[in-house]
Amino acid sequence: MSRGAFILLEGCDRTGKSTQAQMLVDRLTQLGHRAILWKFPDRTTGIGHMINGYLAKHQDLNDQAIHLLFSANRWEAVEQLANHLRSGTHLVVDRYAYSGVAFSAAKGLDLEWCKQPDVGLLKPDLTFFLDMPIQASMQRGGFGEERYEKEELQTRVRDLFLKLREPDWKVVDATETIDQIHEKLTKAAQETIQTVASRELQYGLW
Ligand code: Z5A
Ligand code: MG
């Protein structure tokens, strides 16, 4: 049986990740694939509730503790993610460990320290980095409500994403229209689905 593809969307705030992730799942489903959306942080678990409390500013935690919780939130999902992929379901994942490292390092934690808890996680088969100037993304709906939604921090986050960027990432101009971006993502996702069908799952992030 063919395995599913692990397709990741990363990027700074309001670059359209969640919009595109949902559209891609819907499109792949229409095309006859099994595909599901997985969002990190997954706020539905016990760990996710703690993360949500922190992001919504109901609870304070030190930078190291929240970093480890974000990572634990990925590790608690890893068997489920692997099972989906093995059973042939494609995963469209909205944020992952790159967000984890970029946000924590932007707050001042050491970059190498930040990478360690996620070492060995499942590796994405395809990563889209949705990129646009911070000034432009700030003008989109909803910016400013949660803890990290400040221009200066977002600028550092973007620089860190660019530092973490892997050679095979697909950098997407997030200022294009929703439909233009969707077409690009769909095309690349279909290619990856074919390429990875007979490949082993990839562990060993970083
Ligand atoms: N975080 C962390 O610190 N450590 C970690 O390990 C992880 C995350 C995994 C919550 O994330 C926070 O957690 C986040 C990183 C940190 N920090 N912040 N701030 P989240 O993923 O839950 O955040 P969110 O609330 O979903 O927002 P977002 O991801 O930043 O937004 P988005 O998904 O990229 O954008 P969107 O919701 O699809 O679109 C935003 C708006 O723009 C919306 O009104 C759209 O209709 C509009 N839009 C979208 N695309 C376009 C285009 N192409 N043109 C015009 N308008 C558009
Ligand atoms: Mg989102």
From TrEMBL:
GO terms under biological process: dTDP biosynthetic process; dTTP biosynthetic process; dUDP biosynthetic process
Domain Thymidylate kinase-like: 9-184
Keyword Transferase: yes
CDD domains: TMPK (cd01672)
Gene3D superfamilies for this protein: P-loop containing nucleotide triphosphate hydrolases
UniProt keyword Transferase, yes or no: yes
GO CC terms of this entry: cytosol; mitochondrion; nucleus
Name of this chain's protein: Thymidylate kinase
Keywords: ATP-binding, Kinase, Nucleotide biosynthesis, Nucleotide-binding, Transferase
Pathway: Pyrimidine metabolism; dTTP biosynthesis
Family: Belongs to the thymidylate kinase family.
GO molecular function annotations of the record: ATP binding; dTMP kinase activity; nucleoside diphosphate kinase activity
Organism domain of life: Eukaryota
EC number: 2.7.4.9
Native source species: Tieghemiomyces parasiticus
